[in-house]
Amino acid sequence: MSEEAESGTMEGKPVVLVEGLHKRFGATHVLKGIDLAVEKSQVVCVIGPSGSGKSTLLRCMAFLDRYDEGRVFIENRLLGYRETDGELTRDSERNIDSVRSVIGMVFQHYNLWPHMTALGNVTEALRVVRKLGRREAEHIGMEMLGKVGLNDKAHDHPARLSGGQQQRTAIARALAIRPHVMFFDEPTSALDPELVGEVLQVMQELASEGMTMVVVTHEMGFAAHVADEVVFMDDGEVVERGSPDDIFKRPRSDRLREFLDTWRSRAI
Amino acid sequence: MSFDIDIVFRYGPLLLSGLWTTVYVCALASLLAVAAGLAAALLYGLPFRAVKLLCRAYIEIMRGTPILILLFILYYGGPSAGLTLEAETVGIVGLGFYGGGYFAEIFRAGFQSIPPGQIEAARMLGIPRPAIVARIQIPQMLTLIIPPSTNQVIILTKESALLSIITVAELTKNTTQMVNETFAVVEPYVAVALLYWLIIEGIALAGGALERRFSRAS
Fold it and tell me: Percent helix, strand, coil in chain A (nearest 5)?
Protein backbone atom coordinates (compact mmCIF):
# COMPACT_ATOMS: atom_id res chain seq x y z
CA MET A 1 0.00 0.00 0.00
CA SER A 2 2.83 2.38 0.79
CA GLU A 3 4.27 1.69 -2.68
CA GLU A 4 0.94 2.58 -4.18
CA ALA A 5 0.97 5.88 -2.36
CA GLU A 6 4.51 6.66 -3.40
CA SER A 7 4.23 5.51 -7.00
CA GLY A 8 1.64 8.14 -7.68
CA THR A 9 -1.57 6.16 -8.12
CA MET A 10 -2.90 8.32 -5.29
CA GLU A 11 -2.26 11.39 -7.46
CA GLY A 12 -5.05 13.90 -7.12
CA LYS A 13 -6.77 11.92 -4.37
CA PRO A 14 -6.64 13.49 -0.93
CA VAL A 15 -4.55 11.67 1.65
CA VAL A 16 -7.30 12.27 4.20
CA LEU A 17 -10.91 12.71 3.21
CA VAL A 18 -13.65 13.39 5.75
CA GLU A 19 -17.27 13.41 4.58
CA GLY A 20 -20.29 14.49 6.60
CA LEU A 21 -18.80 13.47 9.94
CA HIS A 22 -21.09 13.40 12.97
CA LYS A 23 -20.20 12.52 16.52
CA ARG A 24 -22.39 12.47 19.59
CA PHE A 25 -21.44 11.89 23.21
CA GLY A 26 -24.81 10.91 24.65
CA ALA A 27 -27.14 13.82 24.00
CA THR A 28 -24.31 16.18 23.11
CA HIS A 29 -23.85 16.65 19.37
CA VAL A 30 -20.11 17.32 19.16
CA LEU A 31 -19.49 17.17 15.41
CA LYS A 32 -22.27 18.29 13.12
CA GLY A 33 -21.36 17.22 9.62
CA ILE A 34 -17.68 17.97 9.01
CA ASP A 35 -16.15 17.81 5.54
CA LEU A 36 -12.41 18.00 5.10
CA ALA A 37 -9.88 17.06 2.45
CA VAL A 38 -6.14 17.04 3.01
CA GLU A 39 -3.96 16.77 -0.08
CA LYS A 40 -0.47 15.33 -0.18
CA SER A 41 2.13 17.65 1.42
CA GLN A 42 -0.60 19.99 2.58
CA VAL A 43 -0.58 21.41 6.12
CA VAL A 44 -4.08 21.97 7.48
CA CYS A 45 -4.45 23.74 10.81
CA VAL A 46 -7.70 23.44 12.72
CA ILE A 47 -8.38 26.34 15.09
CA GLY A 48 -11.32 27.28 17.24
CA PRO A 49 -12.41 27.88 20.81
CA SER A 50 -12.18 25.17 23.47
CA GLY A 51 -15.06 22.76 23.17
CA SER A 52 -15.56 23.52 19.48
CA GLY A 53 -14.94 19.86 18.64
CA LYS A 54 -11.57 20.21 16.94
CA SER A 55 -9.79 17.58 19.05
CA THR A 56 -12.76 15.24 18.73
CA LEU A 57 -12.57 15.69 14.96
CA LEU A 58 -8.92 14.67 14.94
CA ARG A 59 -9.59 11.71 17.25
CA CYS A 60 -12.43 10.55 14.98
CA MET A 61 -10.14 10.95 11.98
CA ALA A 62 -7.77 8.51 13.72
CA PHE A 63 -10.69 6.37 14.92
CA LEU A 64 -9.60 6.80 18.54
CA ASP A 65 -13.19 7.93 18.98
CA ARG A 66 -15.86 6.13 16.98
CA TYR A 67 -17.77 8.44 14.66
CA ASP A 68 -21.54 8.03 14.34
CA GLU A 69 -22.23 9.16 10.78
CA GLY A 70 -20.18 10.02 7.74
CA ARG A 71 -16.93 8.61 6.44
CA VAL A 72 -13.22 8.98 7.03
CA PHE A 73 -10.96 7.83 4.20
CA ILE A 74 -7.22 7.54 4.69
CA GLU A 75 -5.46 7.19 1.34
CA ASN A 76 -8.75 6.16 -0.16
CA ARG A 77 -9.49 3.41 2.39
CA LEU A 78 -12.46 3.72 4.72
CA LEU A 79 -11.27 3.89 8.35
CA GLY A 80 -13.08 2.14 11.18
CA TYR A 81 -15.97 0.62 9.30
CA ARG A 82 -16.75 -1.77 6.52
CA GLU A 83 -19.41 -0.63 4.09
CA THR A 84 -21.86 -3.05 2.54
CA ASP A 85 -24.86 -1.66 0.66
CA GLY A 86 -24.47 1.69 2.37
CA GLU A 87 -24.50 0.05 5.82
CA LEU A 88 -21.52 0.64 8.07
CA THR A 89 -20.34 -2.12 10.37
CA ARG A 90 -17.34 -1.84 12.64
CA ASP A 91 -14.21 -3.14 10.97
CA SER A 92 -11.84 -5.68 12.52
CA GLU A 93 -9.01 -4.38 14.66
CA ARG A 94 -6.52 -5.74 12.15
CA ASN A 95 -8.05 -3.77 9.26
CA ILE A 96 -8.30 -0.63 11.37
CA ASP A 97 -4.60 -1.02 12.23
CA SER A 98 -3.78 -1.49 8.59
CA VAL A 99 -5.64 1.65 7.42
CA ARG A 100 -4.19 3.62 10.34
CA SER A 101 -0.64 2.45 9.72
CA VAL A 102 0.11 5.50 7.55
CA ILE A 103 -0.94 7.95 10.30
CA GLY A 104 1.53 9.27 12.86
CA MET A 105 -0.18 10.79 15.87
CA VAL A 106 1.14 13.29 18.38
CA PHE A 107 -0.89 14.00 21.52
CA GLN A 108 -1.25 16.99 23.80
CA HIS A 109 0.12 15.09 26.78
CA TYR A 110 2.88 13.30 24.79
CA ASN A 111 1.76 9.89 26.09
CA LEU A 112 5.29 8.54 26.24
CA TRP A 113 5.87 5.26 28.04
CA PRO A 114 7.70 6.31 31.21
CA HIS A 115 9.41 2.97 31.85
CA MET A 116 11.30 3.10 28.56
CA THR A 117 14.11 5.44 27.50
CA ALA A 118 13.54 7.98 24.73
CA LEU A 119 15.15 5.53 22.33
CA GLY A 120 13.02 2.69 23.73
CA ASN A 121 9.89 4.73 23.05
CA VAL A 122 10.96 5.44 19.48
CA THR A 123 12.01 1.87 18.66
CA GLU A 124 9.11 0.01 20.33
CA ALA A 125 6.84 -0.09 17.28
CA LEU A 126 9.78 -0.92 15.03
CA ARG A 127 10.61 -3.93 17.17
CA VAL A 128 7.10 -5.15 17.95
CA VAL A 129 5.18 -4.22 14.80
CA ARG A 130 7.88 -4.20 12.14
CA LYS A 131 9.78 -7.00 13.90
CA LEU A 132 13.14 -5.34 13.26
CA GLY A 133 16.20 -6.50 15.21
CA ARG A 134 17.48 -4.34 18.03
CA ARG A 135 20.41 -2.96 16.05
CA GLU A 136 18.38 -1.95 13.01
CA ALA A 137 15.56 -0.50 15.12
CA GLU A 138 18.04 1.53 17.19
CA HIS A 139 19.73 2.79 14.05
CA ILE A 140 16.40 4.15 12.78
CA GLY A 141 15.52 5.35 16.29
CA MET A 142 18.72 7.40 16.56
CA GLU A 143 18.07 8.84 13.11
CA MET A 144 14.58 9.94 14.21
CA LEU A 145 15.84 11.37 17.51
CA GLY A 146 18.49 13.22 15.49
CA LYS A 147 15.76 14.72 13.36
CA VAL A 148 14.16 16.27 16.44
CA GLY A 149 17.54 17.24 17.92
CA LEU A 150 17.61 14.72 20.76
CA ASN A 151 20.51 12.37 19.97
CA ASP A 152 22.10 13.16 23.30
CA LYS A 153 18.95 12.26 25.24
CA ALA A 154 18.42 8.83 23.67
CA HIS A 155 19.14 6.93 26.86
CA ASP A 156 17.21 9.17 29.24
CA HIS A 157 13.79 8.23 30.57
CA PRO A 158 10.92 10.68 29.91
CA ALA A 159 10.93 11.84 33.55
CA ARG A 160 14.39 13.31 32.96
CA LEU A 161 13.30 15.25 29.87
CA SER A 162 11.66 18.67 29.72
CA GLY A 163 8.14 18.94 28.31
CA GLY A 164 9.49 20.15 24.99
CA GLN A 165 11.97 17.28 24.82
CA GLN A 166 9.22 14.81 25.69
CA GLN A 167 7.00 16.13 22.93
CA ARG A 168 9.89 16.00 20.44
CA THR A 169 10.51 12.40 21.50
CA ALA A 170 6.82 11.70 20.85
CA ILE A 171 7.18 13.22 17.38
CA ALA A 172 10.24 11.03 16.71
CA ARG A 173 8.26 8.00 17.90
CA ALA A 174 5.45 8.79 15.46
CA LEU A 175 7.92 9.42 12.62
CA ALA A 176 9.71 6.11 13.16
CA ILE A 177 6.94 4.17 11.45
CA ARG A 178 7.37 6.41 8.37
CA PRO A 179 3.83 7.79 8.31
CA HIS A 180 2.38 9.44 5.20
CA VAL A 181 0.41 11.90 7.29
CA MET A 182 0.91 13.32 10.78
CA PHE A 183 -1.92 14.28 13.12
CA PHE A 184 -1.06 16.74 15.89
CA ASP A 185 -3.59 17.16 18.68
CA GLU A 186 -2.74 20.46 20.42
CA PRO A 187 0.92 19.48 20.58
CA THR A 188 2.05 22.57 22.49
CA SER A 189 -0.93 23.19 24.78
CA ALA A 190 0.60 21.37 27.75
CA LEU A 191 3.98 23.07 27.41
CA ASP A 192 5.49 25.94 29.33
CA PRO A 193 5.57 28.98 27.00
CA GLU A 194 9.35 28.95 26.65
CA LEU A 195 9.30 25.35 25.40
CA VAL A 196 6.68 25.86 22.69
CA GLY A 197 9.16 27.18 20.14
CA GLU A 198 11.36 24.09 19.95
CA VAL A 199 8.36 21.87 19.19
CA LEU A 200 6.90 24.25 16.60
CA GLN A 201 10.30 24.43 14.93
CA VAL A 202 10.43 20.66 14.51
CA MET A 203 6.90 20.74 13.08
CA GLN A 204 7.83 23.53 10.71
CA GLU A 205 10.82 21.52 9.46
CA LEU A 206 8.56 18.54 8.86
CA ALA A 207 6.16 20.72 6.89
CA SER A 208 8.98 22.11 4.77
CA GLU A 209 10.09 18.55 3.97
CA GLY A 210 6.68 17.96 2.47
CA MET A 211 5.01 15.99 5.27
CA THR A 212 1.23 16.01 5.05
CA MET A 213 -0.05 17.37 8.37
CA VAL A 214 -3.27 18.04 10.21
CA VAL A 215 -2.65 20.22 13.24
CA VAL A 216 -5.22 21.08 15.88
CA THR A 217 -3.70 24.09 17.56
CA HIS A 218 -4.04 27.28 19.53
CA GLU A 219 -0.79 28.59 18.03
CA MET A 220 -2.14 31.20 15.63
CA GLY A 221 1.38 32.26 14.63
CA PHE A 222 2.17 28.72 13.51
CA ALA A 223 -1.12 28.45 11.63
CA ALA A 224 -0.50 31.81 9.95
CA HIS A 225 3.02 30.96 8.83
CA VAL A 226 2.98 27.24 8.10
CA ALA A 227 -0.56 26.23 7.15
CA ASP A 228 -1.72 25.90 3.57
CA GLU A 229 -5.28 25.90 4.78
CA VAL A 230 -6.78 27.03 8.07
CA VAL A 231 -10.08 25.60 9.24
CA PHE A 232 -12.02 27.50 11.88
CA MET A 233 -14.42 25.40 13.91
CA ASP A 234 -17.04 26.47 16.39
CA ASP A 235 -19.79 24.48 18.06
CA GLY A 236 -19.10 21.32 16.08
CA GLU A 237 -19.16 22.97 12.66
CA VAL A 238 -16.61 24.32 10.22
CA VAL A 239 -17.49 28.01 10.19
CA GLU A 240 -14.81 29.20 7.80
CA ARG A 241 -11.89 27.79 5.90
CA GLY A 242 -9.29 29.34 3.67
CA SER A 243 -5.70 30.46 3.32
CA PRO A 244 -4.07 31.90 6.46
CA ASP A 245 -4.46 35.36 4.92
CA ASP A 246 -8.20 34.84 4.38
CA ILE A 247 -8.73 33.59 7.89
CA PHE A 248 -6.53 35.96 9.84
CA LYS A 249 -6.79 39.13 7.72
CA ARG A 250 -10.20 38.87 6.09
CA PRO A 251 -12.52 36.98 8.41
CA ARG A 252 -16.04 36.86 6.98
CA SER A 253 -18.06 35.59 9.89
CA ASP A 254 -18.77 37.27 13.21
CA ARG A 255 -17.84 34.13 15.06
CA LEU A 256 -14.31 34.06 13.60
CA ARG A 257 -13.89 37.82 14.13
CA GLU A 258 -14.90 37.40 17.76
CA PHE A 259 -12.53 34.45 18.22
CA LEU A 260 -9.62 36.37 16.69
CA ASP A 261 -10.40 39.46 18.77
CA THR A 262 -10.35 37.42 21.96
CA TRP A 263 -7.08 35.83 20.94
CA ARG A 264 -5.48 39.17 20.01
CA SER A 265 -6.58 40.83 23.25
CA ARG A 266 -4.95 37.94 25.13
CA ALA A 267 -1.80 37.93 23.00
CA ILE A 268 -0.75 41.39 24.23
CA MET B 1 4.84 -25.00 82.25
CA SER B 2 7.70 -26.92 80.71
CA PHE B 3 8.57 -27.06 77.04
CA ASP B 4 9.66 -30.53 75.90
CA ILE B 5 11.80 -29.84 72.87
CA ASP B 6 12.41 -33.57 72.38
CA ILE B 7 8.82 -34.10 71.22
CA VAL B 8 9.39 -31.57 68.50
CA PHE B 9 12.56 -33.33 67.32
CA ARG B 10 10.86 -36.70 67.48
CA TYR B 11 8.09 -35.47 65.21
CA GLY B 12 10.51 -33.49 63.03
CA PRO B 13 10.05 -35.69 59.94
CA LEU B 14 6.24 -35.47 60.17
CA LEU B 15 6.36 -31.70 60.59
CA LEU B 16 8.83 -31.30 57.73
CA SER B 17 6.69 -33.44 55.46
CA GLY B 18 3.70 -31.22 56.34
CA LEU B 19 5.83 -28.14 55.74
CA TRP B 20 6.78 -29.39 52.28
CA THR B 21 3.14 -30.11 51.41
CA THR B 22 2.08 -26.65 52.58
CA VAL B 23 4.86 -25.03 50.54
CA TYR B 24 4.14 -26.75 47.24
CA VAL B 25 0.35 -26.62 47.57
CA CYS B 26 0.55 -22.89 48.31
CA ALA B 27 3.08 -22.28 45.54
CA LEU B 28 0.87 -23.99 42.94
CA ALA B 29 -2.27 -22.35 44.31
CA SER B 30 -0.57 -18.93 44.16
CA LEU B 31 0.46 -19.49 40.54
CA LEU B 32 -3.10 -20.49 39.69
CA ALA B 33 -4.45 -17.48 41.60
CA VAL B 34 -2.20 -15.07 39.68
CA ALA B 35 -3.14 -16.66 36.35
CA ALA B 36 -6.89 -16.68 37.13
CA GLY B 37 -6.73 -13.12 38.47
CA LEU B 38 -4.84 -11.82 35.45
CA ALA B 39 -7.24 -13.57 33.08
CA ALA B 40 -10.28 -12.17 34.91
CA ALA B 41 -8.83 -8.63 34.96
CA LEU B 42 -7.99 -8.78 31.24
CA LEU B 43 -11.41 -10.17 30.31
CA TYR B 44 -13.03 -7.54 32.50
CA GLY B 45 -11.41 -4.87 30.36
CA LEU B 46 -12.97 -6.17 27.13
CA PRO B 47 -15.90 -4.21 25.73
CA PHE B 48 -18.38 -7.09 26.06
CA ARG B 49 -21.12 -6.80 28.65
CA ALA B 50 -21.65 -10.53 29.12
CA VAL B 51 -17.93 -11.18 29.68
CA LYS B 52 -17.74 -8.29 32.14
CA LEU B 53 -20.72 -9.66 34.06
CA LEU B 54 -19.20 -13.13 34.16
CA CYS B 55 -15.93 -11.77 35.55
CA ARG B 56 -17.81 -9.70 38.09
CA ALA B 57 -19.77 -12.78 39.18
CA TYR B 58 -16.55 -14.77 39.58
CA ILE B 59 -14.94 -12.05 41.70
CA GLU B 60 -18.07 -11.56 43.83
CA ILE B 61 -18.55 -15.30 44.48
CA MET B 62 -14.92 -15.77 45.46
CA ARG B 63 -14.89 -12.76 47.73
CA GLY B 64 -18.35 -13.39 49.13
CA THR B 65 -17.87 -17.01 50.19
CA PRO B 66 -15.72 -18.34 53.04
CA ILE B 67 -12.90 -20.44 51.65
CA LEU B 68 -13.91 -23.35 53.88
CA ILE B 69 -17.36 -23.47 52.26
CA LEU B 70 -15.78 -23.43 48.80
CA LEU B 71 -13.49 -26.30 49.80
CA PHE B 72 -16.44 -28.31 51.19
CA ILE B 73 -18.44 -27.73 48.01
CA LEU B 74 -15.53 -28.86 45.85
CA TYR B 75 -14.45 -31.80 48.01
CA TYR B 76 -17.74 -33.19 49.29
CA GLY B 77 -20.08 -31.80 46.63
CA GLY B 78 -17.78 -32.46 43.69
CA PRO B 79 -18.37 -36.21 43.41
CA SER B 80 -22.14 -35.73 43.07
CA ALA B 81 -21.42 -33.52 40.05
CA GLY B 82 -19.07 -36.16 38.65
CA LEU B 83 -15.98 -34.35 39.88
CA THR B 84 -13.92 -36.57 42.15
CA LEU B 85 -10.63 -34.96 43.03
CA GLU B 86 -7.79 -35.80 45.38
CA ALA B 87 -7.86 -33.69 48.55
CA GLU B 88 -4.60 -32.00 47.54
CA THR B 89 -5.94 -31.12 44.10
CA VAL B 90 -9.06 -29.67 45.69
CA GLY B 91 -6.78 -27.63 47.93
CA ILE B 92 -4.75 -26.25 45.04
CA VAL B 93 -7.77 -25.55 42.81
CA GLY B 94 -9.90 -24.17 45.66
CA LEU B 95 -7.24 -21.88 47.09
CA GLY B 96 -6.12 -20.94 43.57
CA PHE B 97 -9.49 -19.79 42.27
CA TYR B 98 -10.36 -18.24 45.61
CA GLY B 99 -7.15 -16.18 45.56
CA GLY B 100 -7.81 -15.42 41.88
CA GLY B 101 -10.84 -13.35 42.88
CA TYR B 102 -8.60 -11.10 44.96
CA PHE B 103 -5.78 -11.02 42.41
CA ALA B 104 -8.29 -9.95 39.76
CA GLU B 105 -8.98 -6.81 41.75
CA ILE B 106 -5.28 -6.15 42.30
CA PHE B 107 -4.60 -6.47 38.55
CA ARG B 108 -7.66 -4.40 37.66
CA ALA B 109 -6.42 -1.56 39.85
CA GLY B 110 -3.01 -1.96 38.22
CA PHE B 111 -4.43 -1.71 34.68
CA GLN B 112 -6.47 1.31 35.69
CA SER B 113 -3.35 3.06 36.94
CA ILE B 114 -1.93 3.32 33.40
CA PRO B 115 -3.09 6.53 31.70
CA PRO B 116 -5.31 5.63 28.70
CA GLY B 117 -3.28 8.02 26.52
CA GLN B 118 -0.34 5.61 26.68
CA ILE B 119 -2.53 2.85 25.29
CA GLU B 120 -3.87 5.14 22.56
CA ALA B 121 -0.32 6.03 21.54
CA ALA B 122 0.48 2.32 21.27
CA ARG B 123 -2.71 1.60 19.31
CA MET B 124 -1.88 4.38 16.86
CA LEU B 125 1.50 2.75 16.24
CA GLY B 126 -0.23 -0.55 15.47
CA ILE B 127 1.13 -2.35 18.54
CA PRO B 128 -1.11 -5.38 19.11
CA ARG B 129 -3.05 -5.69 22.37
CA PRO B 130 -1.08 -8.63 23.84
CA ALA B 131 2.15 -6.66 23.36
CA ILE B 132 0.56 -3.60 24.97
CA VAL B 133 -0.31 -5.70 28.03
CA ALA B 134 3.06 -7.43 28.25
CA ARG B 135 5.40 -4.57 27.35
CA ILE B 136 3.61 -1.38 28.36
CA GLN B 137 1.00 -2.11 31.03
CA ILE B 138 2.40 -4.91 33.19
CA PRO B 139 5.97 -3.54 33.54
CA GLN B 140 4.56 -0.24 34.82
CA MET B 141 2.03 -1.94 37.10
CA LEU B 142 4.60 -4.10 38.87
CA THR B 143 5.77 -1.58 41.49
CA LEU B 144 2.13 -0.91 42.29
CA ILE B 145 0.88 -4.50 42.44
CA ILE B 146 3.80 -6.33 44.04
CA PRO B 147 3.06 -5.20 47.65
CA PRO B 148 -0.66 -6.20 47.62
CA SER B 149 0.23 -9.40 45.71
CA THR B 150 2.77 -10.35 48.37
CA ASN B 151 0.09 -9.77 50.98
CA GLN B 152 -2.34 -11.92 49.06
CA VAL B 153 0.10 -14.84 48.85
CA ILE B 154 0.69 -14.53 52.60
CA ILE B 155 -3.06 -14.62 53.30
CA LEU B 156 -3.46 -17.58 50.96
CA THR B 157 -0.67 -19.43 52.76
CA LYS B 158 -2.24 -18.87 56.15
CA GLU B 159 -5.64 -19.94 54.88
CA SER B 160 -4.09 -23.17 53.61
CA ALA B 161 -4.31 -24.37 57.25
CA LEU B 162 -7.99 -25.02 56.50
CA LEU B 163 -6.96 -27.75 54.06
CA SER B 164 -6.36 -29.90 57.17
CA ILE B 165 -10.15 -30.14 57.48
CA ILE B 166 -10.44 -31.82 54.07
CA THR B 167 -7.63 -34.25 55.02
CA VAL B 168 -4.69 -32.74 53.14
CA ALA B 169 -1.56 -33.83 55.03
CA GLU B 170 -0.18 -30.32 55.33
CA LEU B 171 1.41 -28.57 58.25
CA THR B 172 -1.68 -28.06 60.41
CA LYS B 173 -3.04 -31.58 59.76
CA ASN B 174 0.26 -33.19 60.71
CA THR B 175 0.49 -31.02 63.80
CA THR B 176 -2.98 -32.11 64.88
CA GLN B 177 -1.84 -35.70 64.45
CA MET B 178 1.17 -34.94 66.65
CA VAL B 179 -1.12 -33.44 69.31
CA ASN B 180 -3.38 -36.49 69.24
CA GLU B 181 -0.48 -38.90 69.54
CA THR B 182 1.51 -37.11 72.26
CA PHE B 183 -1.22 -35.32 74.22
CA ALA B 184 1.15 -32.36 74.19
CA VAL B 185 -0.41 -29.10 73.03
CA VAL B 186 2.05 -26.28 73.57
CA GLU B 187 5.09 -27.84 71.84
CA PRO B 188 3.35 -28.84 68.59
CA TYR B 189 1.47 -25.55 68.17
CA VAL B 190 4.44 -23.35 69.04
CA ALA B 191 6.58 -25.36 66.62
CA VAL B 192 4.02 -25.09 63.83
CA ALA B 193 3.52 -21.38 64.46
CA LEU B 194 7.26 -20.94 64.02
CA LEU B 195 7.25 -22.93 60.80
CA TYR B 196 4.37 -20.83 59.35
CA TRP B 197 6.23 -17.72 60.39
CA LEU B 198 9.31 -18.97 58.52
CA ILE B 199 7.32 -19.56 55.31
CA ILE B 200 5.64 -16.19 55.56
CA GLU B 201 8.89 -14.38 56.31
CA GLY B 202 10.30 -16.07 53.17
CA ILE B 203 7.38 -14.81 51.06
CA ALA B 204 7.71 -11.31 52.51
CA LEU B 205 11.45 -11.27 51.80
CA ALA B 206 10.91 -12.46 48.23
CA GLY B 207 8.18 -9.83 47.73
CA GLY B 208 10.44 -7.13 49.10
CA ALA B 209 13.28 -8.19 46.80
CA LEU B 210 10.97 -8.13 43.75
CA GLU B 211 9.67 -4.74 44.77
CA ARG B 212 13.17 -3.29 45.06
CA ARG B 213 14.20 -4.81 41.75
CA PHE B 214 11.27 -3.39 39.78
CA SER B 215 11.27 0.01 41.45
CA ARG B 216 14.93 0.31 40.40
CA ALA B 217 14.05 -0.72 36.86
CA SER B 218 11.35 1.92 36.56
Answer: 40, 25, 35
